[in-house]
Amino acid sequence: MRAIDADALKRLLLEMKYTKGNPSLILTKAGEEIYNSAIEMAIHMVMNAPAVNTAPVVHARWICGKYYNDVYGYEKTCTNCGKEYVVGFDYLFCPYCGALMDGEENESD
Ligand SMILES: [Zn+2]
Predict the structure, then answer these.
(1) Could you tell me the pLDDT band of residue 107, with boundaries at 50, 70 and 90?
(2) 58 CA distance to ligand 1 centroid (A)?
(3) How far, in Å, from the CA of 78 to the mean position of ligand 1?
(4) Average model confidence (pLDDT) for the chain?
(5) I need a labelling partner for 101 at 20 to 30 A (CA). Which of 41, 42, 70, 77 fits?
């Protein structure tokens, strides 16, 4: 499942509504009404879709330390929880605190 911004999707759908000046879409009066009511129906479905509980994403990055030849990897420290591990590859998420290791930092950090 992927959580999305329903308000942003509503704005996109509203931009898709037919207007007379739209050069990429030529509709009859009846076609225009059907097209626009389908857009309104989609907006209604989006705005009435059930919400899901999502945890806020914690952003962090790895601080690279000493290199270990035996595991072909660096000692890495999570900027969120401060835990260290040594492995020859990078995790996308910290295995200790679950922070997303995308190189950004949370505002409060
Ligand atoms: Zn961590």
Answers:
(1) low
(2) 9
(3) 5
(4) 87
(5) 70
**Would the pTM count as exceeding 0.85?**
no
Q: Which residues contact 6 (CB under 8 A, 6 or more apart)?
A: 46, 47, 49
Centre of ligand 1 to C-alpha 11, Å, is: 36
Q: 89 alpha carbon to ligand 1 midpoint, in Å?
A: 16
- The predicted model gives 2-19 an average pLDDT of 90
User: Domain segments of the chain: what residues?
Assistant: 6-47, 59-101
List CB contacts of 102: < 8 A, sequence separation 6 or more: 59, 61
Query: For ligand 1, a single-atom ion, which residues have Cβ within 5 Å?
Result: 78, 80-81, 94, 96-97, 99
**Torsion over CA of 21, 26, 28 and 29, rounded to 10 degrees?**
-20
